[in-house]
Amino acid sequence: MSAELLAVPLDRQLRAYGSGVVNVVRVIIADSDGARATGFTYTLGLGAVVVCRMVEEVIAPALIGLRTSDWNRQRDQLSNGTRRLGRSVFVPALSAVDIAIWDLRGLQADQPLYALLGGSSGAVPIYGSGRGSNSLELDELVQHTLDYLRDGYPAVKVRAGARSVEDDLHRLRSVREAVGDQVRLMVDCNEQLDLTGALWLGRRLAELGYYWLEEPLIAEDLDGHAVLAAQLEVPIAVGEHLVGRHEFAQHLRATSIGLYQPDAALTGGVTEAQRIAQLAVAHNRSISYHSLPELHIHLAVQTPNVSYVEDFGILDAVLADSLTPHNGTVVPPERSGHGMAWDEDAIRRFSRPI
Length: 354
Description:
It is built from 13 helices and 13 strands. By secondary structure, the chain is α/β, with parallel strands linked by helices.
């Protein structure tokens, strides 16, 4: 097994709060028959080198001679043995390896990931998300939203939180006026508001018919999220910064939030994302997988309470192809494993020393 570090530039419309680069850790696992599987995780800040080291020095030795059928047991042993290190470094590393293991299982079985997970192919609604950065001028924000609709996306998410709530409200009202009342719009604040601002903005978003208010507060603020869920008409969405099923379970017990957004590349891989979806089903909550539709579509088609997958093109620069919506939905590829096709020339171009 090997790990490599990529520094992938983000287009201006994708940037959030100054992050101009996504640091991708790609893991490659090969079996004795020559099958070559890939997994990945990413950061929008510092620390990706440490994640690579965690893969190479902690997880890789545990995989030597391991059968893929024994991975789940080994995975949990590794998790238990690294608890004192904290979750923020180990879990992303585990995510990348877990995704690669599932890819290898699919290659070995000659099955697409969704079938290996017990699902069947189907169409899942997708929403456009990567063209609504806070850095855009208002006319650009409106135009990009309209472009998404012309490209066949039935719903669009825009970002707020980097400006005053009054400025954000003006921008969000302008987008609503441009697209009309029949289009589903979401807003993502990327944990930038305080409780007072979230309540103020949330009440006005309900009047504008926004479909959800995402990450208004830092994910760990259980009390604040409970207040928002109880007092606001607009639904609250959270999850990309929750690490593992136990943090999701805390939210489920403490709040009445209706929509959760796990990211398999950040929260523990395909294995943990499945467990989180099962928790949400048990609590009658919805799932809308965060970003990475090329991977998450496999999970989405076998998740009964899924509402959307998100099209945020964070990896587009290193992928040879990406999912394209048809009638507002996407379907999983029929290639074995997760089926993600990498642009190896781009991989080499963006490769960085570890």
